[in-house]
Design goal:
Length: 181
C-alpha cells in the first residue's frame, strides 16, 4: 500500500472549504521532503488564487486529516515529521514491515530504524510454518519426532512461547521474540 495523506490547510478548514482544496496526495510522487514542500507551497498559492480568504490572509498551515500506508505513530494532523516519513517509505518491503512492527511495540522511530535488521519475521501460514520454524530451531528434535512414535512435539506451545504475531496489510507474520526484545 502506498503512503498517502489527505492534505488540506487550517484556513480552508476554518472557512469550511477544506474539501474544496483538500485532496489525497500519494507521497511516492516525491523523491524527498523538499520536493513535497515545494508541491504544498504551490498548492497553497493556487488555492489562494482560486479562492482568496475573506480576511486577505494566505494559506500557510498544512493540515493532514487522514492517512494510509504508514504506521499511526508517524501521523500527526499538524506536526508530522516528513523527514522520518520519507525515510520510512523509502525502505524496502521487509524493512517497512520490521519498522512498523517495532513502532507498534511502542518503540520510537530512531530505535525502530536502528533495530529493523534484528526483526526475524516469517509469514504465518499455519501448521506448515510452525513445523518449519521448529525444525529450524531444533533440527535434531524434529528428526526424532519423525522417527519416534512415543515422542510428540507441542508445536503450538513452541510458537506461543517463542513468537509473537504481527499483522501487516492483511498478512499475519510470526516474529521471533528474541530477535527484537
Amino acid at each position: 500500500m502506498e503512503a498517502k495523506i489527505f492534505l488540506t490547510d487550517y484556513a480552508s478548514y476554518n472557512n469550511g472549504t477544506q474539501f474544496e482544496f483538500g485532496h489525497w496526495v500519494d507521497l511516492s510522487q516525491f523523491s524527498d521532503v523538499e520536493e513535497f514542500n515545494a508541491y504544498v507551497s504551490k498548492h497553497f498559492v493556487d488555492a489562494d488564487k482560486k479562492s482568496p480568504l475573506g480576511d486577505g490572509s494566505t494559506r500557510e498551515e498544512m493540515m493532514i486529516t487522514d492517512f494510509e500506508g504508514f504506521p499511526r505513530s508517524l501521523y500527526s494532523e499538524c506536526g508530522m515529521n516528513f523527514e522520518q516519513l520519507f525515510e520510512y517509505i523509502n525502505l524496502d518491503n521487509h524493512e517497512v514491515m520490521a519498522v512498523a512492527f517495532l513502532l507498534e511495540q511502542g518503540n520510537d522511530f530512531q530505535y525502530a530504524m536502528d533495530h529493523k535488521e534484528n526483526v526475524n519475521m516469517t509469514e504465518n501460514t499455519g501448521r506448515d510454518a510452525h513445523y518449519e520454524l521448529f525444525e529450524m530451531y531444533y533440527p535434531d528434535a524434529a528428526k526424532a519426532d519423525e522417527n519416534c512414535h512415543y515422542l510428540e512435539v507441542d508445536y503450538d506451545r513452541f510458537i506461543d512461547e517463542n513468537f509473537t504475531e504481527f499483522e501487516y496489510e492483511g498478512t499475519t507474520y510470526l516474529i521471533a521474540v528474541d530477535s527484537w526484545d
